[in-house]
Amino acid sequence: MKYCIALVVLAGCLDASGPLASTADDLSSENGLSLNGLSLNGLSLNGLSLNGTSLNGLSLNGLDLGLATTKFTTWFQADPAGSALQLGYLAKCAKPAGQNLTWTDPAMHTSYTWPGELGLAPLWTNRAMTVAEQQVMSACMLAHANKFGVHIPIAIEGLAANGTVIARAANELTVYSIREAAFFGNTATGEGAFVCLDHAPLPTAKSTARACAFDSIGTGTDAVCPPIVFAGPCSKICTADTTKTYYTSCTFNGRTYVPLATRLQPSSIYVCGDGVCQFTEHCGTGKTYDSCKADCGVCP
Fold first, then answer.
1. Residue 12 and residue 270: Cα distance in Å, rounded?
2. What is the arithmetic mean of pLDDT over 140-154?
3. Burial class (CB in 10 A: 0-12, 13-18, 19+), 233
4. By three-state DSSP, how is residue 97 classified?
């Protein structure tokens, strides 16, 4: 399945172009990119969506307790706009396409509706999440983090909290042919946010906006994408499914988690020399992404 998200309450700022809660007057932009969901035209039923959440929303921040609690109401009312944005991401991870997450502010009497997409925790709404739901929802949000806050199509493969395989489009594995990473952890309990690498490091001529996975080499907390911790190659810590498409579990620091694997389109990998000066590239005299004369010219 394809999709993108991440709630972040740790440091930084939320991407203002992310999903917003819809009220009675739901608006869509002219290019078909929904203001309240970031879904791609006609493809959302297969899980295709865009990542782009900035790194300040990776924690469930108590949202795993459900929407019927006083704690949730207090949290939401402290910043309705930001809270609504986070709930939009949460809903798309938790609920399947065709189902919504709804809530009415008891003080303002404003009703919110956030559409679902991936269906990773379809039974969760007004109760506390199970451990499996906490893990898979944490993985979903981590998979959608983007240090640049830009939107890149990704495919998500793996298991929902109930153990069912995430639905996949017929051509998903060929269109999204670049294996990226697996994300896992539990941000509800504070156990951590982790990523393992499902690819070889990029050569110096290449770069990508998905830097939280592709720029990572080795282990430990990344200086570029904290608080995500790089756990090394997925092959060392994760168990693959029988098709070798995704992972059924990843074990790190003595704990086992339900992970989500991600894949990219080849066009999401930028190459110095293709004639386009991407925002991940820099002027210079060389042939590397950070000194790319062919695309960005010589620095003044």
1. 26
2. 81
3. middle
4. coil
Q: In this predicted model, what pLDDT tens digit does every residue of 221-235 receive, in sequence order?
A: 766 677 888 899 999
d(CA 215, CA 294): 22
- Residues 6+ positions from 210 with CB-CB distance below 8 Å: 51, 146, 152, 154, 180, 264, 268
pLDDT for 31 beyond 50: no
Locate all alpha helices (DSSP H) within the chain, ordered by sequence: 70-78, 80-94, 131-143, 172-175, 211-214, 234-237, 293-296
DSSP letter (8 states) at residue 2: B
Structure tokens at 284: 């210079």
Structure tokens at 288: 């590397």
Determine how β-strand 229-233 pairs with β-strand 192-197: parallel
pLDDT of residue 259: 97
Indicate the pairing of strand 291-292 with strand 178-186: unpaired
Cβ 36 vs Cβ 23: under 8 Å? no
SS3 per residue for 29-95: CCCCCECCCCECCCCHHHCCEEECECCCECCCCCHHHCCCCHHHHHHHHHCHHHHHHHHHHHHHHHC
pLDDT tops 50 at residue 88? yes
Q: What percent of the chain has pLDDT over 70?
A: 76
Residue 298 has pLDDT above 70, yes or no: yes
Contacts for 64 with CB less than 8 Å, ≥ 6 apart: 124, 128, 129, 133, 134, 137, 188
Q: What residues does 145 pair with on adjacent strands?
A: 53
Q: What is the mean pLDDT of residues 50-55?
A: 49
Q: Does the pLDDT value for residue 178 go beyond 70?
A: yes
